[in-house]
Amino acid sequence: SYELTQPPSVSVSPGQTADITCSGHKLVDKYVSWYQQRPGQSPVTVIYEDNKRPSGIPERFSGSNSGNTATLTISGTQAMDEADYYCQAWDSSIIFGGGTKLTVL
Amino acid sequence: QVLLVQSGAEMRKPGASVNLSCKASGYTFSSYYMHWVRQAPGQGLEWMGIINPTGGSTNYAQKFQGRVNMTRDTSTSTVYMALSGLTSDDTAVYYCARATAVKTMESIGYWGQGILVTVSS
């Protein structure tokens, strides 16, 4: 079965750029979405189809997908961006990565 | 705006069943697939399955085959997810989640508020 691998944690200083990676076999052949989940809240879609932002999502969120790795980039990271982030792809079913805890310190 | 309003928290004993609801509004119900995703305490997201509101066809994750049943009521724009044979491992928050785009199933655009299901004797 298809698997997506994320680093368990990423740390970033306020105002800096955070990159969260998601790895999977020939991931470039699939669309990747990213979901943000703050503690105690439902997930929110921040990126879909590799690099599209839903309305209302700040421009500091961007995505890319190349080879075996997709990346969620948060530019000018803010304290409010501290959350768990999950990547997701489709392989005859929804596949989620294990999630990455982003710490802003 | 798109809203997915789920029913309230549930508590069940092992071996019991639970039926969760998710009422959609703010869009054309029949045009978007609906997913169910769950999250055990402190764990990641786990996909359970999907239902096509047009016709009611379903596709379940292999892990839940034989134990899950997803249905819909187009007259009330509501989807339901029934899970039987509950064990403590089924204790989780259950989310309904609408697909991103019309007639596509590959990603999720909107999430419900979640329902906590607790299974305990």
Would you write up a description of this structure?
The complex is a heterodimer of chains A (105) and B (121). Chain A has strands spanning 9-12, 18-23, 33-37, 44-47, 61-66, 69-74, 83-90, 94-96, 100-104. Chain A is mostly beta strands and 105 residues long. In chain A, the strands form 2 sheets. In chain A, strands 1, 3, 4, 7, 8 and 9 form a 6-stranded mixed β-sheet that branches. In chain A, strands 2-6-5 form a 3-stranded antiparallel β-sheet, with no helix packed on it. Chain A is globular, with a radius of gyration of 13 Å. In chain A, a hairpin with a 2-residue loop joins strand 5 (61-66) and strand 6 (69-74). The mean pLDDT of chain A is 97. In chain A, 0% of the residues lie in helices and 45% in strands. By secondary structure, chain B is mainly β. Helix content of chain B is 0%, strand content 50%. Chain B has strands at residues 3-6, 10-12, 18-25, 34-39, 45-51, 58-60, 68-73, 78-83, 92-99, 108-111, 115-119. In chain B, the strands form 2 sheets. In chain B, strands 2, 4, 5, 6, 9, 10 and 11 form a 7-stranded mixed β-sheet that branches. Chain B is globular and about 40 Å long. The relative contact order of chain B is 0.32. The model of chain B has no long low-confidence stretch (mean pLDDT 96). Classes of the chains: A mainly beta (105), B mainly beta (121). At the A-B interface, strand 7 and strand 8 of A face strand 5 and strand 10 of B.
Q: Structural class, from helix and strand content of chain B? A: mainly beta
Percent helix of chain A, as a range, is under 10%
Main beta sheet strand tally, sense and closure of chain A = 6 strands, mixed
Gap from first CA to last CA of chain B: 40 Å
Task: Tell me the number of strands of chain A.
Answer: 9
Number of helices of chain A: 0
The average pLDDT of chain B is: 96
User: Which sheet architecture does the biggest sheet of chain B show?
Assistant: 7 strands, mixed
Strand content of chain B: over 45%
Oligomer: heterodimer
How many beta-strand runs of chain B?
11
The largest inter-chain interface, given as chain pair and residues per side, is: A-B, 21 and 22 residues
